[in-house]
Amino acid sequence: MGGGPPTPPEEHLLVLLPFPEPTAIFDRIRKNHPNIKITFRQIHFTITPWNAATAVPPSLYNTATILVTLSALPPTPADCPHLTLIHFTSAGTNHVAQHPIYTDTQITLTTSSGIHGPQMSEWVVMTALAHSHHYSLLHTWQQKHVWRNTGSSRELASLRHLHDKVGQRLAVLGYGSIGRQVARVAKAMGVDVIAYTARPRRTAEEKKDHGFIVPGTGDPEGEIPSAWYSGTDKASLHHFLAQDVDWLMISVPLTPSTEKMLGKEEFEILARRNAFVTNISRGQIIDQPALIDALKAYADANPNPGSDPSTTAATAGGPNVGNGNTVEGFTSQTSEQLLTDHPLPGLRGAALDVADPEPLPPDDPLWDAPNCIITPHISGLGATYVDRCFQVLEVNLERKEKGEQLINVVDRQRGY
Question: Considering the chain, what percentage of its residues have pLDDT values greater than 70?
Answer without folding.
Answer: 86
